Amino acid sequence: MQWTGWSLKLGRVAGIDLFMHATFPLLFIWVGLIYWLQTGTIAGVLFGLAFIAVLFLCVVLHEYGHALTARHYGIGTRYITLLPIGGLAALERMPKDPRQEIIVALMGPAVNVAIAAGLFVLLTLTGGWTAVDPEAPLMMMPGNFLQTVLFANIFLAVFNMIPAFPMDGGRVLRAALTFRMGRDPATQLAARIGQTLALFFGIMGLFGNPFLILIAVFIWIGAAAEAGASEVETRLQGRPVSRAMITDFHTLPPGAPLSRAVDLTLSGTQKDFPVMDGHRLVGVVSQAAILRGLRDHGLGGRIYDVMAEPVTAQTGADLAELMEALQQDPAVRLICILHGQQLVGLVDMDNLSEFLRIQAALRDR
C-alpha cells in the first residue's frame, strides 16, 4: 500500500488501481457512532461496521461493472477511488455512441441488481427471511445481515439511477436525449435537471438528513463539470490544431546536459521540450522528468537519460481529439505537431486553455 496525494492505493485488480480516499475512514467512525446510538451494544456496532465494509465491496463491484464494460468498447479506466459517499471509476472517457454510453452506465446498477437477486435466491432457499420492523431505522436489522445487504443493493441500484450527473441515471438521460438533440445540448439539459434535483436534495437535507446536503453538493459539482467539459469539447471540435499550436518553442538534442534544460526553463515559460536529433523528432522531456534527472544524475545528466517517447499529431488534427488525448493520460503533457515528418508546433493544456479564453473573449464582443 502507498499514498498518492490524498488517496491510499489498496491494490490493482483487473489491471485497474484501486484507491481509498483519506476521508473514507470517517465513514466507519460515523457508522459506528450511529449503530451505537441505535443499539447501545458492541454487537450492534460490529454489525454496522461489517455491513458498511460489505456494502462498499458491492460499491467496488459496481464500479468494476462500469470499468470492464467500458474496456469492452476500448475505453480504459485510470483508477477506482472509494469515497465516503460512494465509488468513482475514472474512465479515460465516456463512449461517444449513446447506445454504448447507456450500456456502460447501466452495468454498474446491474451489478447491484445481480447481487440482490443472488441474495434473494439464497435467502429463499435457506428460509433466512425475517420480518422487517417498519418502525426500525433504515438498514438497522442486526438479526439478518444478508437481508440488510440485499436491501442495500436495491437502494444502491435505485439511487444511482437518479437522472442527475454524475449519477448513472444522469448519463443514461444524457445518452437518451442525444438521440434527439445532439450530445452538447443533451448534456446541458441533463446537467440542468441534475442541478435542479441537487437543489431539492439540499432543501430536504436542511429539514431532515444532513447527508443529503453532501449528496446535493456532489451532484451540483458533477453536473457543472459535465456541462463545462461538453461545452469545451464543442468549442474545440472541428478546429484544426494549426489554429492554436505553439510555434515559438525551444528544442533539445538528446546529448545535451540537463543544465541546458534548466537554463531554458528559468529563462522562459516553456516547461516541456521536444528532443530533436538533427531534424528528426526522437522524444520529449517533461519538467517532472527533468527534476527526476537532476535528483538522480545532477546537472551533468543527459537528456537521453530522461526523455520519453513523443506523442504526435498532424497539423490537420482536431483540437477536441488532442484535448481528449491530454486528459486521458496524465503522463502526456505535450503533443508534438508534425507537418509530414517536420516538427512545426506544440500543444499542451495551458495552450488549449489560452485558446479557449481567446475564443470566449471574441464571442462576447
Brief descriptors of the model:
single chain, 365 residues, alpha+beta, CBS-domain, 3 domains, 5-stranded mixed beta sheet, 3-stranded mixed beta sheet, 10 strands, elongated
Account of the 3D structure:
- It is built from eleven helices and ten strands.
- By secondary structure, the protein is of the alpha+beta class.
- The chain folds into three domains: 2-161, no CATH class; 180-236; 241-363, CBS-domain, CATH 3.10.580.10.
- A five-stranded mixed sheet has the order 1-2-3-4-5, with helices on one face.
- Helix 3 (98-126) packs antiparallel against helix 5.
- It is elongated and about 80 Å long.
- It starts with a strand and ends with a helix.
- Structural class given helices, strands, pairing? alpha+beta
Strand order of the largest sheet: 1-2-3-4-5
Q: Give the low-confidence spans.
A: none
Count of individual helical segments: 11
Average residue pLDDT: 87
Q: What is the subunit arrangement here?
A: single chain
Query: How big is the Rg?
Result: 25 Å
Could you outline the blueprint of secondary structure elements for this entry?
Elements: E1 2-4, E2 7-13, E3 16-21, H1 24-39, H2 42-72, E4 77-83, E5 86-91, H3 98-126, H4 145-160, H5 168-181, H6 183-207, H7 211-236, H8 258-267, E6 273-277, E7 280-285, H9 287-297, E8 311-314, H10 319-328, E9 335-339, E10 342-347, H11 349-363
Parallel strand pairs: 3-4, 8-9
Antiparallel strand pairs: 1-2, 2-3, 4-5, 6-7, 9-10
